[in-house]
């Protein structure tokens, strides 16, 4: 703002607060000056002969009053237009006030007229409008002008009153004292206003922070007043109660009658334990706390989702069970190895057609199965650290298919491979990717039907939406029952008599450690599809190739 004093540049940044310290006081001063000039003019032109106003020079007094009134109206207009700048207007108006009042004092016979008190008011307003040095400067000008007026009357007007200089000196001291006291008072007021402004900002920021925390909480928060009207309801409460409309200002009874009934019962019997409440997403457990308001006692209601609590408890239980199972599995390996070794030694002494040989074969098969379970559990409890690398998925899949078909699990013509674009790149640990894809292909062989009829398709491409690369492992088997699709990734869930139920669970955990996801997708017309979605993709010029596998 043009002409704003340096002391005021440290005022609040908000335009409204700045106006309260500058232009608003200046407009109030203009209004006061207009009232004062009008009142002095009315008194002079109506009952001037009955007062001391204009007693020494009536003509000068009348002209000064009218000019002062005109200047007051002009100054008020300029203050509203804010032209020219603030500091220029404030200084010029203060100097005109001092000059006009001194002329009125002179034309009214000096300080005995009682108009000197108007100088104190003008200097005091200058302390409010201007910085400290300019206010002292205005007081000095007013004091010097008073002494000059008294000297002029003493030498040129033959005013030989002995108390004239005393009154002028005392009034001058009064002007300086007014400046000092008013400056201190204004400084304290402005400091208090600045402190209040900063406290207000801190409180507003704290309120915004608290509101943000409340809205981001997983638990539902509802605050009601003394009449059970909702004053605050966070997003979690909307979701848990399945209430999608703005709830603030509405009655709790309209939002959730059951919760309202529990609140009334709790107010009557605070020691009563809360009961489970049926919410939009499951069972809820409410907790009530009294809150004081200006009109009476309100309440804060905390809603906890029992499903989330049970899930968290289940995760803790599974983690403890996993540690226990891993320790037990580690201890089983030694006796299991001894049993397997003993069965092999006994099997060497039996003929292939003997009954003992068949029993030894059962022992060997089951020890191998138990050993596979132990290995899976140990791998689950101590997963390897993922070291993601940038891989060209097409080249990697070619090597994998060659290795998988040469292992004797499946014939080359039963596996087909497509990659779009041909140079598609992914981010994943190659050894862990090999383990996941091998496991999924083995599952396809075991569950898709007769081994000679199994067809496996490995298809890598880029998703249309988020542009993330993915790999589909598709077979032509009967697919997975939709009722079981949500359970296949749970540990120890299996539909095969010889399965451990840990393969898919471990595969999903390995993908998660590489910031990838593994999901099941049903295939139209039969079959299963497991999709691995990788975290990043690097786009290259589009191309595609298909590599049919022939015997």
Task: Please provide a brief summary of the model.
This protein has 551 residues and is an alpha+beta fold. It has 15 helices and 13 strands.
How is the topology of this model organized?
Blueprint: H1 15-21, H2 23-47, H3 58-81, H4 86-107, H5 117-129, H6 132-156, H7 163-216, E1 220-224, E2 230-233, H8 235-241, H9 252-255, H10 257-268, E3 277-278, E4 283-292, E5 297-305, H11 306-348, H12 355-381, E6 389-392, H13 393-406, E7 415-419, E8 425-428, H14 430-447, E9 456-462, E10 469-475, H15 503-513, E11 517-522, E12 528-533, E13 545-547
Parallel strand pairs: 7-9
Antiparallel strand pairs: 1-2, 1-5, 3-4, 4-5, 6-8, 7-13, 9-10, 10-12, 11-12
Write up this protein.
The protein is built from 15 helices and 13 strands. The strands form three sheets. The chain has a six-stranded mixed β-sheet with strand order 11-12-10-9-7-13. Strands 2-1-5-4-3 form a five-stranded antiparallel β-sheet. Strand 1 and strand 2 form a beta hairpin. Helix 2 packs antiparallel against helix 3, helix 3 runs antiparallel to helix 4 and helix 11 packs antiparallel against helix 12. The protein is 56% helix and 13% strand. The radius of gyration is 46 Å and the shape is elongated. The two termini are 86 Å apart. It has four domains: 194 residues, no CATH class; 88 residues, Beta-Lactamase (2-Layer Sandwich); 73 residues; 159 residues, Heat Shock Protein 90 (2-Layer Sandwich), CATH 3.30.565.
């Amino acid at each position: 703002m043009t002409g704003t004093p340096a002391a005021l540049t440290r005022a609040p940044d908000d335009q409204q607060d700045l106006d309260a310290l500058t232009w608003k006081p200046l407009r109030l001063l203009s209004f006061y000056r207009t009232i004062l000039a009008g009142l002095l003019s009315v008194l002079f032109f109506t009952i001037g002969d009955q007062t001391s106003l204009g007693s020494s020079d009536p003509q000068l007094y009348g002209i000064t009053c009218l000019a002062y009134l005109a200047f007051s109206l002009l100054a008020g207009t300029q203050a509203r237009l804010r032209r020219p700048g603030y500091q220029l207007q404030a200084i010029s108006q203060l100097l005109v006030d001092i000059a006009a009042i001194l002329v009125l004092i002179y034309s009214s016979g000096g300080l005995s007229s009682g108009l000197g008190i108007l100088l104190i008011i003008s200097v005091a307003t200058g302390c409010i409008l201007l910085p400290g040095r300019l206010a002292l400067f205005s007081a000095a000008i007013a004091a010097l002008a008073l002494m000059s007026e008294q000297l002029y009357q003493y030498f040129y007007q033959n005013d030989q009153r002995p108390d004239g200089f005393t009154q002028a000196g005392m009034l001058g001291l009064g002007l300086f004292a007014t400046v000092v006291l008013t400056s201190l008072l204004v400084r304290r007021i402005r400091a208090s206003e600045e402190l209040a402004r900063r406290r207000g900002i801190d409180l507003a920021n704290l309120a915004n922070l608290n509101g943000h925390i409340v809205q981001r909480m997983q638990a539902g928060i509802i605050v009601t007043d003394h009449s059970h009207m909702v004053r605050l309801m966070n997003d979690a409460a909307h979701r848990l109660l399945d209430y999608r409309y703005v709830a603030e200002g509405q009655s709790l009874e309209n939002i959730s009658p059951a919760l309202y009934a529990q609140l009334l019962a709790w107010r009557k019997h605070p020691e009563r334990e809360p009961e489970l409440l049926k919410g939009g997403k499951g069972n809820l457990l409410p907790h009530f706390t009294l809150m004081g308001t200006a009109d009476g006692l309100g309440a804060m209601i905390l809603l906890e989702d029992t499903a989330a609590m049970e899930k968290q408890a289940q995760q803790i239980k599974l983690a403890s069970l996993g540690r226990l199972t891993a320790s037990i599995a580690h201890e089983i390996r030694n006796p299991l190895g001894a049993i397997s070794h003993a069965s092999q030694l006994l099997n060497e002494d039996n003929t292939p057609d003997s009954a003992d040989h068949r029993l030894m074969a059962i022992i060997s098969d089951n020890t191998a199965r138990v050993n596979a379970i132990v290995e899976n559990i140990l791998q689950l409890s101590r997963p390897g650290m993922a070291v993601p690398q940038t891989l060209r998925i097409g080249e990697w899949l070619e090597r994998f298919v060659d290795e998988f078909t040469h292992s004797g699990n499946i014939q080359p013509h039963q596996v087909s491979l497509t990659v779009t674009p041909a140079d598609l790149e992914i981010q994943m640990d190659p050894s862990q990717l090999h383990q996941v894809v091998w496991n999924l292909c083995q599952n396809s062989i075991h569950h898709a039907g007769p081994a000679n009829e199994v067809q496996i398709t490995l298809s890598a491409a880029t998703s249309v939406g988020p542009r993330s690369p993915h790999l589909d492992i598709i077979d032509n088997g009967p697919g997975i029952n939709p009722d079981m699709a949500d359970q296949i990734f749970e540990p120890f869930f299996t539909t095969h008599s010889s399965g451990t139920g840990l393969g898919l669970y471990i595969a999903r955990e390995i993908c998660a450690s590489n910031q990838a996801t593994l999901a099941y997708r049903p295939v139209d017309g039969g079959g299963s599809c497991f999709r691995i979605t990788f975290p990043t993709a690097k786009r290259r010029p589009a191309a595609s190739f298909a590599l049919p596998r022939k015997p």
